[in-house]
Amino acid sequence: MVRKDGNRGAVSLDKRIEIAVPWEIRIEPAVSLVPLPMASSRKKTPPGKNDPSAPFRIEVTRHAAAGTTAELVVQLPDGTQRRTELDPGQARRASTRVEWTPDSKIKPGTYPVKAVLNSQGNSCEAQASVVLADVRVPESLEVGVIQSYDQTLPDALKALGVDFSLLNEADLLRGDFTRFDAILVDIRGYLERKDLVAANPRLLDYVRQGGRLVVFYHKSFDWNDADPPFAPYPLKLAGSRVTREDAPVTALNPMHPLLRYPNVIEKQDWANWVQERGLYFPDTYDSHYQEIVSMSDPGSEPLKGAILYATYGKGEYIYTSLALYRQLRACVPGGFRLFANLISPKDLVP
After folding, report:
1. Which residues pair with 128 in a beta bridge?
2. Distance CA 134, CA 136 (A)
3. What is the reported pTM?
4. DSSP codes joined into one string, 194-238
5. Which DSSP category does 154 fall into?
6. Domains of the chain: residue spans and CATH
7. pLDDT of 117-167, one tens digit each?
8. For residue 125, what are the β-bridge partners?
9. What percent of the chain has pLDDT over 90?
10. CB atoms within 10 A of CB 296
């Protein structure tokens, strides 16, 4: 409460009055993806062990008097509820975790998860979404991740239940790559990781010996001046992009393994993308690269470098300028299905 003193323009603070609702509630993550059990091609495990699940963290903030208790009711997609008594005591905040595992009878789709807090006749709620998607990954897949500044790849691999390792400098410069079925270079990794630049010849040798290396989007000034070049064959990036997230996509080679294994990529997999299709598309590249899809904004020339695939020695090199990181963050099913194909060598698919 502010009181004006006798002196002109002078005020003093007598006491603070806080105007707030009795409780606040928050649920994270706002959206998550779970591969349906019936879609998994991974080894079946006993019920309750390594089942695909959606974990949620629910945090409540108390503005009511200390000692006030509340009941938390979490409404799950299958119609069940989880009830918890919250007694934060003198604390202002309390949190709890709820994990939901779908059964094989539930259909693909987006389902709400609602958390409702009831206390002394007052209630508040927060809502999240869980996306159930038909996404297949091979049983024994093991992936190495060269992470940049982004958490998207580890989060996506966790959602799919894929075994992965984050590669540090020692791993890159001296580690054994042969244990990995695929190694992923995160978005703009060559800008962020000087150890990656130094280890790139080792990565190309990993491909030559039979590995799969997948490089996600970079900008032209991250890439074009590299000496020696990062890719096994000439590949230059431009500033071109496809800004329409719903831009039509044409499969240039519908039977290519990247569009067939372990998920058959169809028209609906390009639906509901967010913000854009891709950015910094390659404009010149060697004939060793196979063009997989074509896309363009209205009135623009088709861009065919969204996914480039090349064999190198015994292995495979893939460069993609697709904005997959946005689709993985938003839990777009088609983005996850395509991502699963990029990281899954065909010889692992039954």
Report:
1. 113
2. 7
3. 0.88
4. HHHHHHHHHHHHHHHTT-EEEE----HHHHTT-SS-SSSS-EEE-
5. H
6. 23-133 (2.60.40.3880), 142-348 (3.40.50.880)
7. 988 888 889 999 999 999 999 989 999 999 999 899 999 999 999 999 999
8. 116
9. 73
10. 19
